[in-house]
Design brief:
Helix content is 60%, strand content 6%. The protein has helices at residues 2-10, 12-19, 22-33, 35-49, 60-71, 77-94, 105-120, 146-165, 178-185, 187-208, 212-227, 230-245, 250-274, 288-291, 302-309, 313-327, 332-337, 347-368, 383-390, 395-433, 451-459, 495-510, 544-554, 563-570, 573-582, and strands at residues 122-128, 131-137, 485-490, 515-520, 533-536, 557-559.
Length: 585
């Protein structure tokens, strides 16, 4: 086991490099920026459809109104994603631009949306009441157009980079106001991006007879079909868990490439469900509720196992501290507290549990009559509740939930007990050394992992992303933090909320005026200049170098605590304030 972990450690920089790929980042952050569309539209869809499940008939005008809100939000998802992806890709590209050369993210955003319409939407004329009307085919404006959105975004930003880097812009006299001059500077790159996408559109339509968006779906359909098989689902889930196990945020690497088909499948499931059929797609957006049942690694049942069956003080304490966050899919307290990340005892169950879950889900959908997921629920919805809702409240879904909870418990328990025995022996040794009774062994606050685990778990931090300042001396602990504004960032604003809340509580305890907020990495660029300190949670620590370039430019202090250190801070409000003092220049 130790040899396997050492091998994984050796290749960790390569995996971190993948996670920092600017194209993957742009896709992930662009999609994340449009999540309010997905969640809000789903609420109106639920209002329109779910009352019928319990025999309640809503007034038809109310149903029509909800359907309109859904169509005018989710129905233009592709256009919006083109804009947000271009905006985030522009931010990454600006870090690589020559000094004094900056791409206008507002202009690239609009240009990408126009370019996406050219690639994905068909315009035709039809007669209505004796008059000719110009009509847009809206089919690919939504989730079916996501691939076109990404292509349009990347082409647009590269055209802007080419033009701005070479000063291929219209320059006006310096007396012209800046806003007007910027509009003229953007004309050539804007026109270039739109023209290129327009040419691609003409070529594809004439050669293939379909719009660009349909071409991609046709060409990639074998890949999508393979992804929805048992091996495909297992591979996707195993890769997600594997990357997280080595300390790299797995969903950030795996999901951007499959999000378009996941959303398209879920939308198709919904159409089939509303038509009275059986939604059969298993590769859907909310399949993560199953594969990441309680968080990556399918850890929903693990805190309860720690509380009920483990004997070591450390694991019992971790179980009590993590049971509520894990219920809402925030499992970092467990991942870094046990630890599970780079813990050789946890590699097999951490990867296997999610793979088993998605396999059982596909079996239930294909053979037992459980609906494929149709409604979208927020990622932090407790998994059993989310699965029940998104399968349209099927009772068989509750049976499915019970089965995967049992299977996950069976998978995890023997490995947890082996690790627990190691920790118990360690605690007994420490107690003997201190002259204490064995049942008074150290608690989680005073204990660490076993030597083998300690070596490997620490190694995820042994290769720092960048040189960071050493903690200040004791004298610096008295530095004033009054009036400080702190922004904590993680992958989905779940873990970051835990530290932000601890800082707020610590500020109240010490009587200091400190404002703290939580956010998701990738959605911070518009607000980061409002803060004095930015803290990166462990799962986004691989972005330290990119963030450091931005914070240095804005004069913001950037901090990136290690895994267990971060979790300890979330549990110690006063300690979080002290930590801020110690790390201020």
């Amino acid at each position: 086991m130790d040899a396997i972990v050492k091998m994984l450690e050796k290749h960790q920089p390569f995996f971190e490099k993948i996670s920092r790929n600017i194209y993957l980042q742009a896709i992930k952050d662009g999609f994340l920026g449009c999540m309010p569309i997905v969640l809000t539209s789903s609420i109106f869809l639920l209002i329109a459809t779910l009352p019928g499940v319990v025999g309640i008939t809503l007034p038809q005008p109310l149903i029509d109104w909800c359907d309109k809100l859904y169509n005018f939000t989710m129905g233009v998802m592709g256009i919006m994603v083109a804009g947000t992806t271009a905006k985030n890709f522009t931010a990454s590209m600006n870090r690589r631009m020559p000094a004094g050369k900056v791409l206008n993210d507002g202009s690239t955003m609009v240009a990408a949306q126009c370019s996406m319409l050219l690639l994905a939407v068909t315009q035709f004329t039809t007669k209505f009441d004796g008059s000719e009307l110009s009509v847009f085919d809206c089919t690919s404006m939504g989730t079916r157009g996501l691939f076109s959105a990404y292509i349009a975004a990347f082409i647009t930003v590269w055209v802007y980079k080419f033009c701005v880097s070479r000063d291929l812009t219209i320059k006006l006299p310096k007396e012209v106001p800046g806003a007007i001059a910027q509009n003229f500077r953007d004309i050539i790159p804007f026109g270039g991006a739109v023209i290129i996408c327009g040419i691609i559109d003409v070529v594809v339509r004439n050669l293939m007879g379909v719009p660009f968006s349909e071409l991609l779906i046709k060409l990639l359909s074998p890949l999508f079909t393979a992804a929805e098989t048992y091996p495909g689902l297992i591979l996707i889930q195993a890769a997600t868990a594997f990357f997280w196990f080595i300390g790299v945020h797995g969903p950030s690497i795996v999901q951007p490439g499959i999000d378009p088909i996941r959303l398209a499948n879920q939308a198709e499931n919904l159409q089939v469900l509303l038509a009275g059929g059986h939604p059969a797609h298993s590769l859907t957006f909310n399949m993560s509720l199953v594969g990441e049942f309680g968080g990556t690694g399918a850890t929903f049942i693990v805190p309860l196992l720690l509380i009920l069956f483990m004997k070591s003080k450390q694991l019992k304490a971790v179980g009590k501290a993590s049971i509520v966050p894990v219920a809402f899919a925030v499992n970092e307290p467990l991942l870094f507290g046990a630890p599970m990340i780079l813990n050789p005892y946890m590699l097999i169950p951490f990867v296997a549990a999610g793979c088993v879950n998605v396999s059982v889900a596909k079996f239930f959908i294909d053979n037992v009559g459980m609906n494929g997921f149709s409604f979208v629920v927020p990622w932090a919805t407790p998994a059993p509740i989310g699965i029940f809702i998104t399968t349209n409240f099927q009772l068989i879904a509750l049976v499915f939930v019970a089965i995967i909870i049992l299977l996950d418990a069976i998978i995890y328990l023997p490995f947890l007990k082996a690790y627990d025995k190691l920790l118990c022996d360690q605690e007994a040794e420490r107690a003997a050394e201190l002259g204490l009774e064995s049942d008074g062994a150290a608690t989680i606050a005073a204990s660490t992992s076993a030597p083998a685990v300690e070596q490997t778990a620490a190694s995820v931090d042994s290769k720092p992303v960048a040189d960071q300042p050493e903690p200040a001396s004791d004298a610096s602990a008295k530095k004033d933090v009054d009036g400080l504004k702190v922004l904590v960032l993680c992958a989905g604003a779940g873990t970051s909320a835990m530290l932000a809340n601890a800082i707020k509580e610590g500020a109240a305890q010490t009587g200091e005026n400190i404002a703290s907020s939580a956010g998701a990495y990738g959605q911070h660029t518009a607000i980061m200049d409002q803060y004095d300190v930015i803290v990166l949670a462990p799962q986004v620590r691989s972005y330290y170098n990119d963030m450091k370039a931005d914070t240095d430019r804005l004069g913001i202090k950037l901090l990136a605590p290690r895994g267990k250190e971060y979790i300890d801070l979330t549990r110690d409000p006063a300690g979080a304030i002290k930590w801020l003092r110690e790390n201020l220049d």
